[in-house]
Design a protein that fits this description.
This protein is of the alpha+beta class. It has helices spanning 22-37, 58-74, and strands at 4-9, 12-19, 47-54, 78-89, 92-101, 115-126, 129-137. It has a domain at 44-111: Archease domain (Archease, Possible Chaperone, Chain: A, domain 1), CATH 3.55.10. Helix 1 (22-37) runs parallel beside helix 2. The protein is globular.
């Protein structure tokens, strides 16, 4: 099973993420943010952070979570590589992320992601498989 795939969207980047559980889905969606953003092959998980996010349902929670992890790059300069969800329900997520401070001598930025949008945001569970769609403003 793939963690995510890209889909065409005018002037933006669309992602469809997958998981066998909500935990795996949200971790894979966050991985997609950084896999699109940078070459993760030279990122070591040396800095770990706990993350707590609230939302008004699965879609809101997903967008808020992805905005929070994107802020860790834009606001704190961290390139994240590992994502784990400790506890999740439609209104709250507790997780951990790990990565390294951005170092232009070691790390390559592929695509700047400006924002995570609500446009077409969706989270669905069917037949034991979770799927999410989200669009990034690039």
């Amino acid at each position: 099973m793939h963690r995510y795939k890209l889909f065409d969207h005018t002037a933006d980047v669309g992602v469809e993420a997958y998981g066998k559980t909500a935990n795996e889905l949200f971790a894979n969606a966050a991985f997609a943010v950084f896999d699109i953003l940078a070459d993760l092959s030279h990122v070591s998980p040396i800095v770990e952070r706990k993350i707590v996010v609230a939302g008004d349902g699965w879609e809101d929670l997903l967008v808020n979570y992805l905005r929070e992890v994107l802020y860790m790059y834009n606001g704190e300069g961290l390139l994240l590589k590992e994502f784990s969800i400790i506890d999740i329900d439609p209104r709250r997520l507790v997780g951990k992320v790990a990565g390294a401070p951005f170092d232009p001598a070691k790390h390559t930025i592929n695509t700047e992601i400006k924002a995570v949008t609500y446009h077409q945001a969706a989270v669905k569970e069917a037949h034991g498989m979770w799927t999410a769609r989200v669009i990034f403003d690039v």
